[in-house]
Design brief:
It contains 13 helices and two strands, in the order βαααααααβαααααα. It is an all-alpha fold.
């Protein structure tokens, strides 16, 4: 057995075998109740809530909840660790906030992964124990590979974060999340125009670092998929309409 979600699975989601053709509904309560309240989670959460813009934070939580929803509903036999996966999700976009993009020549995934690993190891009182090193390595691996779509193997957590982020960003594997589960998650953690925020951050990454990993967006046709995200449009259009109504009331 591998600790902290490091068990290997197929990277290509078409090779996975979901349990149901139509996703079962998983309640928001059941999903949120998996978020651990350990000391390291509380420390990391306090640190990141001050750093991440609200749309980025909400995206990170949605990625966690969608990943867990897919595992609970479709892959219940997967061996995953809530603490390590939650930390991976809340740290995964630390490398693409404005101050990070301009702070390094590294692609955002790697810079954010190294920041996360360093932060987690520094929570130790003295020399980190092997358990903490394994946890930090798992988180770092997930963040480094959350946009690595080369086939082969990936960790369970790496697959979970790819499933969660790709669902949120382009609507991939939409059949693996029940529509009501999706609605509940977005209601609790609104998008706040995430599609535009994400697109701007990725384009800025490419502008600042024309060698970066994100340049694959062009070759893979990702930009169009982000802009056309079918699961995002109804919610973001509703958000815009609500803003317009609020302006008229004022």
């Amino acid at each position: 057995m591998y600790p902290y979600g490091l068990t290997p699975v197929n990277r290509n989601p078409s090779l996975l075998k979901p349990l149901h053709s139509s996703a079962p509904r998983v309640s928001l309560h059941d999903l949120v109740s998996t978020i651990p309240s350990t000391a390291i989670v509380k420390t990391a959460t306090a640190h990141l809530r001050d750093l991440l813009p609200e749309p980025t934070w909400n995206h990170s939580i949605r990625a966690y909840l969608y990943g867990v929803a897919m595992v609970k509903g479709q892959f219940p036999d997967w061996d995953w660790d809530a603490e390590a996966f939650y930390l991976s999700c809340i740290f995964h976009d630390l490398g693409c906030i404005p101050q990070s993009l301009s702070a390094t020549k590294l692609s955002f995934e790697f810079y954010g992964a190294f920041l996360a690993r360093d932060f987690l190891l520094k929570t130790a009182d003295g020399e980190p124990k092997q358990e903490l090193k394994d946890l930090a390595d798992s988180v770092c691996e997930v963040i480094c590979r959350h946009t690595d779509f080369v086939n082969g193997k990936i960790t369970v957590h790496g697959q979970m974060i790819q499933l969660g982020t790709l669902y949120d960003n382009i609507g991939a594997q939409a059949a693996w999340v029940h529509p009501e589960t999706h609605k509940d998650i977005v209601k609790a953690y609104p998008r706040h125009g995430w599609t535009a925020c994400f697109g701007h951050a990725m384009r800025e990454e490419v502008r600042l670092k024309p060698w970066s990993h994100t340049t694959f967006f062009d070759a893979a046709g990702i930009w169009a998929k982000v802009d056309a995200n079918p699961i995002a449009k109804p919610f973001e259009e509703a958000e815009e309409a609500e803003k317009s109504d609020d302006k008229r009331v004022v």
